[in-house]
């Protein structure tokens, strides 16, 4: 979901509040600004300079990229730490710690995404309610809602993974329950009877 929210073009959309006639709609994200007219023609323009952007856009870019990196590490660590995976053998203590590290990465991913999306949305609302703001006013787009959903899921998933993967010592490892079969019981019963000498001759079986 972070990978879907990051390239989404609708992080903020120009508002129609107070406008009687709207001939074009402007929408932006962290990378470009686009406009569409009444006949449906789209024109997009990448931001020409990174240093010329506002500080919150630069910070949001860095946080979203860091979020994708943390999420990738968290996914790999979680797959390695799962008990059903063959990686790492049957050392469940080590696998539990690796899975807990994956949970930490997911928490970092959710926190970075939440900060970036909330910071971007705070600037949109601040400009929207500022009566003296001279530029174009925007509203919150669908990309921010996807980012909020992604951050919430990542934080909940990382927290659940940390609570579920408690580090256990080797003494706490529960052995596989041994269930003796009925055949071994029959063999143990019949074994003494084989030592008893038989009184029947060879002709008794004919």
Automatic annotation (TrEMBL):
Bilayer-crossing regions: 56-77, 98-122, 142-164
Pfam families per record: PMP22_Claudin (PF00822)
Keywords: Cell junction, Cell membrane, Membrane, Tight junction, Transmembrane, Transmembrane helix
GO cellular component: bicellular tight junction; plasma membrane
Name of the protein in question: Claudin
Molecular function terms, GO-annotated: structural molecule activity
Annotated localization: Cell junction, Tight junction; Cell membrane
Function: Claudins function as major constituents of the tight junction complexes that regulate the permeability of epithelia.
Protein family: Belongs to the claudin family.
Bilayer topology annotation: Multi-pass membrane protein
